[in-house]
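Dear support,

I submitted the protein below through the web form. The confirmation email said the job was done, but the results page showed an empty box. After a refresh the structure appeared. I'm attaching both so you can tell me whether what I see now is the final result or a partial one.
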Amino acid sequence: MIKVEGLHKHFGGFHAVDGATLEIKTGTITGLIGPNGAGKTTLFNVIAGRLPPTSGRVIMDGEDITGLPPHVLFQKGLLRTFQIAHEFSSMTVRENLMMVPPRQSGERLWNALFSRGQIAAEEAQIRAKADEVLEFLTISHIADEKAGNISGGQKKLVELGRTMMVDAKIVFLDEVGAGVNRTLLNTIGDAIIRLNKERGYTFCVIEHDMDFIGRLCNPVICMAEGKVLAEGTLEEVKNDERVIEAYLGTGLKNKLKEEQAHA
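What the results page shows now:
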């Protein structure tokens, strides 16, 4: 579904993404791991159109989408979430979901003045869709809560719910587990798996929680210093010498080897 070919993103002399090449296949939940500063979020930002690449290409279903703005990619079914949830805090959880579908009739002044029946019917349909999403995510009980008052984990579920309000093809999840307790993280994981299996969503997930990655993701891609180091199952990637060195550093890696040799 997504092919990244020789992607670079430079900030002055700093190469945040340095020639990354990878593929996210349709129907997978692909994990993206790597130490802090590896370039994972910058890669997401370039793919999702928030940052222009310095060079390289992003291909989606055979179409070159390099540098297209987020609203155009949104219409093509490419969505992303963020490390810190971006909610409309003064609106209810249900209203946050109802904001998502584009080109609503009520957005036009003419319709607001002369097509109120059409607007009411459309809003009822969107509200029903939002309630279905809340039920799917098991958070119907907070539908009327102000989004600014719910927990961080619940906000992450609401962000996931937003992707369900449109026909998403691929969703990029940036540290969906950050600051989330284990119970809610399991709920989020269950929802991702169901969306993948039951609704055909393709996901790419940045996450530092290896248990979460191991439960959801195959394949797993590891980045370091802006480059792709390894790809495979989580166990294969974790046992790759280049990955071990990227996480531990050469000195600590050698120290651990010495300790194991003398054990």
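Response: this is the final, complete result; the empty box was a page-load delay. DSSP finds eleven helices and ten strands in the chain.
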